[in-house]
Design the sequence.
């Protein structure tokens, strides 16, 4: 049975998903972006009847590695082309938008086709984007993730240590380490809450907006992340309507279907 592969190449992880002819995600995987392992990547695609692949990428070097691996298995691939999208990118410079943000918009509209949506993608950076139910990407906000904030504190001070990115045992810390840990953890949740609130206020009907969270921080079952984010995801549920770890993959598949339909027409 012919199946389709979508690949999301980030700066930290490479994620992939295999969809069957009924548009169901039947297999997905994640592996470290660096160092890239061809053997690890091909172990997820070999012996599968993949007819085509569709790629989102924010890293040119990794992109070439993935393309080479696919070519060795005779799998044709394509990328997002801004000019061919049905989604209207209502921003000044569409070419500057990350492919993953576009894919997330498609994924959110597939999940909530009758609502304006805010997509919160929580990874190295936190992006909050607004897409309307009539298919317009209006832009959004970018905020540093907790790991970047932790590294910035350590890199720009003499005595602040680099702390683990996890929920502290107590809201009020009792050491420098736990002071920083608490500030980063609750500061990130507070930032997300405020970003969502501000974006809702620019919509005609804030109460009807659906908020979807995705990104590396939501992958609690991912062995690259383990259970360190479980508490964060539980707290995040209070701020959003839906948590969709595979939203980017679903969105890429929606774009692929759109492109294939155009080619067939």
Sequence:
């Amino acid at each position: 049975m012919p199946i389709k592969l979508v690949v999301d190449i980030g700066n930290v992880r490479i994620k992939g998903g295999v969809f069957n002819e009924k548009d169901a995600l039947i297999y997905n995987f994640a592996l470290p972006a660096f160092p890239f392992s061809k053997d690890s990547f091909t172990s997820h695609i070999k012996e599968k009847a993949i007819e085509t692949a569709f790629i989102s990428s924010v890293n040119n070097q990794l992109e070439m590695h993935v393309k080479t691996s696919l070519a060795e298995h005779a799998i044709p691939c394509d990328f997002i082309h801004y000019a061919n999208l049905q989604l209207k990118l209502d921003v000044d410079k569409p070419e500057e938008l990350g492919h993953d943000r576009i894919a997330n918009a498609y994924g959110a509209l597939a999940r909530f086709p009758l609502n304006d949506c805010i997509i919160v993608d929580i990874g190295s950076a936190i992006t909050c984007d607004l897409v309307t139910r009539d298919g317009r990407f209006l832009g959004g906000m970018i905020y540093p993730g907790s790991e970047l904030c932790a590294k910035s504190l350590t890199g720009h001070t003499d005595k602040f240590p680099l702390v683990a990115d996890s929920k502290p045992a107590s809201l009020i810390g009792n050491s420098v380490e736990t002071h920083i840990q608490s500030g980063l953890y609750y500061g990130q949740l507070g930032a997300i809450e405020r970003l969502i609130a501000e974006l809702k206020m620019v919509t005609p009907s804030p109460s009807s907006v659906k908020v979807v969270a995705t990104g590396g921080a939501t992958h609690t079952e991912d062995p690259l992340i383990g259970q360190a984010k479980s508490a964060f995801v539980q707290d995040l549920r209070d701020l959003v309507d839906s948590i969709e770890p595979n939203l980017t993959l679903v969105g890429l598949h929606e774009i692929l279907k759109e492109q294939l339909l155009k080619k067939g027409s």
Notes: The first strand starts at residue 3 and ends at 9.
